[in-house]
Design a protein that fits this description.
39% strand; alpha+beta
Length: 169
């Protein structure tokens, strides 16, 4: 697996968010990959992720990690490979594809809605992280800011100290 870099990552970005970080690049990457592994294909009530834009909404994330010109879906085996790879090599960029499936529940019935397709680039440096987000297509039920905020909360997890903190301009 060639880890992390998508050669044709879009230049027209919809969000650039910068963070200060108190752990090593390797630890930050491993935390991010573990969190993505935990949420991949899991069902969330919209309220668990952000302020709901869909009443009775449910969403499901599907992440892939770049492998030169494609993305490999991150199942449990691929997450372990990726964590091992960032543990053994210096990786400064991790590119992800994120599909977000939306459903609206009404009683027993569940209606599928349009999907959102995002590309995310994490640029890792000593004490800092830059997240670049490109919204490829979809209704943007979950905004780029909400997506990065959810990932940041996942990285910070249950730590007493915030691992990553957004730098506000």
């Amino acid at each position: 697996m060639t880890i992390g870099l998508y050669e044709t990552f879009p230049e027209n970005l919809h969000l650039i968010a910068n963070y200060t970080v108190i752990v090593s690049i390797r630890q930050l990457q491993q935390r991010l990959l573990k969190f993505i592994g935990q949420i991949n294909r899991q069902e969330f009530l919209f309220e668990q992720v952000s302020i709901p834009t869909i009443p009775n909404g449910v969403l499901i994330f599907e992440f892939g990690l770049a492998d030169v010109n494609t993305f490999t879906f991150l199942d449990a085996i691929e997450i372990k490979k990726a964590i091992a790879a960032v543990g053994s090599e210096r990786v400064h960029i991790l590119d992800f594809f994120c599909s977000i499936r939306y459903y609206k529940s009404s009683g027993e019935k569940r209606v599928a809605l349009k999907f959102d397709y995002y590309m995310l680039r994490g640029i890792f440096g000593k004490g800092k992280l830059e997240m670049q987000v490109f919204h490829e297509r979809g209704p943007r039920y979950l905004s780029p800011e909400d997506l990065t905020g959810f990932l940041l909360r996942g990285i910070n997890g249950t730590s007493n100290r915030k691992i990553a903190r957004e730098i506000t301009p």
